[in-house]
Amino acid sequence: MEGKEVERGTSIEKIVEILEGLGHRLTPQRIIVAKIIMDNVKDHPSFKQIHQLATKQLPRLGVSTTYMIMKMLEEAGVITTFEANGETHIDSPHPHINIVCQDTGMIFDLEPNEESSEIVNAIINAARKQGVPLKKPVVVVKGFCTNGQKVKP
Q: pTM value?
């Protein structure tokens, strides 16, 4: 199933509309997990963190239900995921660069500017030339962020 392109900062109302348009039933669990994900997506929460937040509102929510909702949102184009620090993290679906600090565990977006946009576009174009059409690339750059300096996302 191919999802629609979702704008940055998409509201829960728009996500409900997208999911309904794709024929998904809107259960309380799906709505609550989707809202938690969208409220926290800028922080790149891990799947485990999302599940922990969701069980505060739905104590009997299973891990597999949370996972299926996350995958449904990813297939709908509402979010994307990537692996870092041994965990699955949730992210916005727009092409951009993520910085993963291996020494602090922090994950943040490289502020979009002309230079970072050129880098992402170069990766997309290089992949296309190799016969790999990237639809929603997630660029993850890992490094060590501290040298006695404070890291600010």
A: 0.82
